[in-house]
Amino acid sequence: MDFTLREIYSPERINREVQRLAREISSDYHGKEITVLVILKGAFIFAADLVRKLTVPVTVDFLEISSYCGMDSTGKTMMVKDVGHPIQGKDVLIVEDIIDQGLCLSVLLQDLSRRNPASLKICTLIDNRKRRTHPIEADYVGIRDVCGFLVGYGLDMDQRYRELPALYEVVPSDKSDDVPH
Ligand code: IMP
Ligand code: MG
Hints:
9 strands, about 30% strand, six-stranded mixed β-sheet, binds inosinic acid, binds magnesium ion, globular, three-stranded antiparallel β-sheet
């Protein structure tokens, strides 16, 4: 497929939303320590920026969910990498890049809530609620209802473009009026 990348959110806009989220989260968790769970791979850049703007203490852990978990019909979790430390009794904040259908997170939430954290909340950079097939609600949302397939700022297409500092929509060439990337 020939395509171009059209910038839809600049690094400055992303930075403003991350700053806003960090303020909200720091205020809500005042006096507590947050166990930040970063969902690999897509959320690694967002999480790195977010935790550096928080004013409450954090610990950071990572887990990876396979990209095909949405196709799973068995209800089994498709965790590629689990967290390194128990979350029982912790105030856990899941940091995700984008929630679309909500399949991946609904599987993950069931699994994590069985481990008895003190609290379990979700922070996502992008929330596409219109595409939701599973009833997942994010507690903290950076950007709502973005159309198209996105890359950059951690998000990939076939593992590429994660390093781009802005968020881009992948536009098939015949629809694009942009300069080819
Ligand atoms: P969901 O189960 O449909 O909510 O899928 C969520 C996961 O699919 C995200 O965590 C991303 O890793 C991936 N994903 C969904 N939409 C996009 C996109 O537009 N660009 C890149 N990855 C995406
Ligand atoms: Mg993801």
